Recover the amino acids of this structure.
């Protein structure tokens, strides 16, 4: 048994488009861990808030709404799906509109308070790879292993652009790069849980190395950590 029951907690934070989702999914697969995409949770919350018609500025209404949020992940034939209040929103939460809305909604305290409670419940037993912006700083400051994954804005914009085009969205590369930079500013300058590197996080720059190289590096650090602490996998 690991020190938390199921293994350690691995936090992967960083700006949008740095490759966190791919790396978190593949690292979790390699280690037999569970992946928790906290960005998807904020996206699902933003979608539900928009659909509910409540005014995000109405603190009391927002708090009540967020207390009732039920966002979970389900494995559907090897693919992770996002279920929000009983509805599969996996595809709906990936549009540029929802990305923009989520960046605003995720800055609101009632939303963060509610989602952090779920994230701690989902990840507290360990054996998890959580990806987000504030995992190593706020959600699990005591996570055993923390990574801060970065890449240049141009590279992140290019990756996002390819994803959006593959999904049939009509965008230009420059628009996508501008959007990435805009979201970085919004995510880093907000008052609550701004995007920043935890002092004890390992910085990994994925700009010019392959996903496999990133994973090998992370796995090496994981094994070294486990051997040092004498924790079983
Ligand atoms: O990782 P992503 O692009 O799916 O994240 C969507 C938005 O949610 C992004 O604007 C940042 C925000 N977010 C956050 O504030 N805290 C997290 N732990 C994860 C995402």
């Amino acid at each position: 048994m690991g020190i938390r029951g199921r293994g350690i907690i691995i936090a992967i934070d960083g700006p949008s488009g740095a490759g966190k989702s791919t790396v978190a999914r593949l690292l979790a697969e390699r280690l037999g861990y569970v992946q928790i995409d906290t960005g998807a949770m904020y996206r699902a919350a933003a979608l539900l808030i928009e659909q509910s018609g409540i005014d995000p500025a109405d603190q009391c209404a927002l708090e009540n709404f967020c207390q009732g949020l039920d966002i979970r992940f389900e494995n559907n034939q090897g693919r992770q799906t996002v279920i929000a209040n009983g509805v599969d929103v996996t595809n709906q939460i990936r549009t540029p509109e929802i990305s923009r809305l989520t960046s605003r909604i995720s800055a609101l305290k009632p939303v963060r308070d509610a989602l952090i409670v779920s994230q701690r419940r989902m990840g507290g037993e360990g054996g998890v790879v959580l990806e987000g912006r504030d995992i190593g700083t706020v959600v699990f400051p005591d996570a055993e292993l923390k990574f801060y994954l970065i890449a240049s804005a141009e590279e992140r914009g290019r990756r996002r652009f390819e994803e959006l085009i593959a999904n049939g969205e009509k965008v230009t590369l420059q628009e996508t790069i501008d959007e990435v930079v805009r979201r970085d500013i919004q995510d880093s300058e907000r008052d609550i849980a701004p995007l920043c590197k935890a002092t004890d996080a390992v910085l990994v720059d994925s700009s010019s190395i392959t996903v496999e190289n990133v994973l090998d590096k992370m796995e090496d650090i994981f094994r070294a950590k486990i051997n040092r602490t004498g924790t079983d996998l």
User: Anything to note?
Assistant: The domain at 9-227 is CATH 3.40.50.300 (Rossmann fold).
